[in-house]
């Protein structure tokens, strides 16, 4: 049975700003891994107390999760804390994980919920000058223009802060991380119709806020 050992995130996330152009099926197995190393088997082994199997899951999923959490929270340190706490929670709950969804989707849900709780608890929102730099977005209102200057990134950060926690989560997962509506619905715990509505409202708001950069 998993104990209370604290999982450690990889020291450096390789290619953390790479475009999320893989399919949702890739969240559930390591692309290029050999037979017998899929997430499902690793999760089973980890649930039986195999710490090396769980460490493999951490290494496989942490970089993408930290990147998404940074987009949600606007702070790399906060994102790393959220992801690490999510993996601690996952380690403890592994005996309850019966493979009804892919491990990747399951851990995304834990991370997303943790980030949503952090966002909802912010009263008031952190001043913009105290929020860490966001990684350059892969899918933004106008991707080519957004990365032209630090001022544009700052404006995007400010624009994201005007969204509700749920809108921000859906937009980041859809436009930034390239996830399907089905994946986001499962990760956030709402219907696909609700995801589409939140993404639509977020796009409309960001298009208005980022009008100078279109």
How would you explain this protein's 3D organization?
α1 packs across α2 (51-73) and α2 crosses α4. The longest helix is centred in the N-terminal third of the chain and has 23 residues, at 51-73. The protein has helices at 39-47, 51-73, 76-93, 103-121, 143-146, 150-160, 165-176, 181-188, 192-209. The chain has 214 residues and is mainly α. It starts with 38 loop residues before the first helix and ends in a 5-residue tail after the last helix.
Task: Summarize the helices and strands and which ones pair or pack.
Layout: H1 39-47, H2 51-73, H3 76-93, H4 103-121, H5 143-146, H6 150-160, H7 165-176, H8 181-188, H9 192-209
Helix pairs in contact: 1-2, 2-3, 2-4, 3-4, 4-8, 7-8, 7-9, 8-9
Radius of gyration: 17 Å
Total of helices: 9
Shape: globular
Proportion in β-strands: under 5%
Largest sheet: none
Count of individual beta strands:
0
Distance between the termini: 53 Å
Low-confidence stretches: 11-23, 25-36, 124-140, 143-147
Helix content: 55-70%
Order of helices and strands: HHHHHHHHH
Structural class: mainly alpha
Average pLDDT over all residues: 75
Describe this protein with a few key phrases.
214 residues; mainly alpha; 57% helix
In short, what is this structure?
The chain has 214 residues and is mostly helical. It is built from 9 helices and no strands.
């Amino acid at each position: 049975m998993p104990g209370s050992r604290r999982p450690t995130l990889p020291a450096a996330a390789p290619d953390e700003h790479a475009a999320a152009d893989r399919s949702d099926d890739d969240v559930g197995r390591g692309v290029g891994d050999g037979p017998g190393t899929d997430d499902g088997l690793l999760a089973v082994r980890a649930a039986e107390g195999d710490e090396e199997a769980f460490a493999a899951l951490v290494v496989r999923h942490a970089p993408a999760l930290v990147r998404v959490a940074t987009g949600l929270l606007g702070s790399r340190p906060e994102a790393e804390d959220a992801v690490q706490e999510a993996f601690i929670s996952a380690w403890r709950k592994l005996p309850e994980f019966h493979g009804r969804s892919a491990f990747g989707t399951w851990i995304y849900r834990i991370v997303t919920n943790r980030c949503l709780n952090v966002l909802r608890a912010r009263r008031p929102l952190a001043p913009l000058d105290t929020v860490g730099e966001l990684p350059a977005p892969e899918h933004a209102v106008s991707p080519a223009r957004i990365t032209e200057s630090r001022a544009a990134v700052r404006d995007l950060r400010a624009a994201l802060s005007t969204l509700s926690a749920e809108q921000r989560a859906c937009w980041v997962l859809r436009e930034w991380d390239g996830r399907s509506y089905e994946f986001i619905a499962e990760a956030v715990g709402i219907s696909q119709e609700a995801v589409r509505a939140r993404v639509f409202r977020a796009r409309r708001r960001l298009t208005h806020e980022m009008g100078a950069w279109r």
